[in-house]
Amino acid sequence: MYLKKANGPRTVTLPGGDVLTLADLPPENTQRWVISRKLKVVSAVRYGLISQEDAMTRYSLSEEELSEWEHAIRCDNLDSLKATRHNRKNNLR
């Protein structure tokens, strides 16, 4: 069996004891960002599975968008993660 060389760790252990792997992350072509997918990406960045730059490149996210997700999770405001990129733009008008 051949394992692809990864630059960083292959797994990280989250504070609750759960293990997060690269295979657990959403597909790179994800279009529909539900809360669970956002949580996985933010957790992967926060605990060093992937870098912030890698997450932004992999998922075509802006630094602002990823920061908003991180802030919402840090403040335990998961309801704000329900807003989509499209909805936020419409709400700004």
TrEMBL record:
InterPro entries associated with the record: DUF1153, Trp_repressor/repl_initiator, WH-like_DNA-bd_sf
Q: Which SUPFAM superfamilies match?
A: TrpR-like (SSF48295)
| Gene3D superfamilies for the chain | Winged helix-like DNA-binding domain superfamily/Winged helix DNA-binding domain
Instruction: Give the source's domain of life in one word.
Output: Bacteria
Name by which UniProt lists this protein: DUF1153 domain-containing protein
Species of the source: Roseovarius phycicola
